[in-house]
Every structure is written in structure tokens, then in C-alpha cells.
Amino acid sequence: MSEPFLGEIRVTSFSFAPKGWAMCNGQLLPINQNQALFALLGTQYGGNGQTTFALPDLRGRSPIHTAAGFVQGQTGGEEAHLLTSAEIPAHTHAQGSAAQATGANPANNVLAAKPRRGSNVYASTANVALAGQGSAGGNQSHGNMQPYLTLNFVIALQGIFPSRN
């Protein structure tokens, strides 16, 4: 394998960073021991810029290319999302009958049909107001991730300093 560029990121199928590489987990590194890498990364991934800088943190993230509206080092999105009522389209649940049942077969006002065998599943007379009960949802988030395969991202701590074209 050829020598990597300093700061190059690769995907690996093993659970450790090889010698000269580090996991892309956002760890802070001392600038005085990694001056060349700091010259490339700066503080775009974190650190105070005086004594430390951070490596990219790709845990739970999908990398995207820089483009209009996406600045290098910017993060966004979320692994799980809690829907609010403002995000759910307005809707209603109409009931099957607006009137009280007055017989065994209330024409055009059937809430439930008689099964092939057995008794009616509605009472012939009742005085029940039909209305929605309680709220929907349970204040729990739902997964918000595309299908994925978990691998590790590593960044080169040693290598060729990349030159600009």
C-alpha cells in the first residue's frame, strides 16, 4: 500500500487504528506534537487552537462532500428524532354513526357488521357518545438513519504532506 497523505481518512473493517493512524472519534491532540496535521485541520473539528485541535468525529455520521451550504467540519442531522405535533399532518377520524342505534339493523349507521357466526358486535340500543380517547404517540423518538453497515474511519497521523495544485 502506498504511503497515505497526512490527514487522509480511510474506512477499515477492523476494530483498531493501525500504527500511524487514529480513530476518527473527535479526540483532542496536542498541537506541539502534531504541527503538520494541525496546519491541515486547524480547529474546524474542535479544540482551542492554542494547545489542542480535534480529529473529525465520524461516529454515527455519514460523510458528505463540501458544497454550497455545507462547510467543511460542519455537522448536521440526527440519529433519532422525536416528532412534534407540528410535524404531523392534521387529520380527523370520522365515526361511523352520528345517531344512536335504535334497532338490530340501523340502516346506514352500522358501526360494526354482524360476523358470519355469532352475535352482533353492537348493541341494538345504546346511549354512548363516540369520541376520540387520549392522545396519540408516546413521546419516544424514532430511528432516523438510512440503512447502514458499521465500519471504522481512521485518519493518517503520519504521511505525505499534501501539496496544492
What can you see in these coordinates?
The chain has 165 residues and is mainly β. The chain has a three-stranded antiparallel sheet, with no helix packed on it. Strands 3-4 form a two-stranded antiparallel ribbon. Among the domains are: 1-62 and 150-165, no CATH class; 96-130, no CATH class. Helix content is 4%, strand content 13%. The two termini are 23 Å apart. The chain is built from one helix and seven strands. It comes from Sulfurirhabdus autotrophica. It holds the Pfam family Collar. This is Microcystin-dependent protein.
Task: Produce the secondary structure layout.
Layout: E1 9-12, E2 21-23, E3 28-30, H1 35-41, E4 52-54, E5 80-81, E6 142-143, E7 152-156
Antiparallel strand pairs: 1-7, 2-7, 3-4, 5-6
Descriptive key words:
165 residues; elongated; mainly beta; Phage_tail_collar_dom; 1 helix; 4% helix; 13% strand; two-stranded antiparallel ribbon; three-stranded antiparallel beta sheet
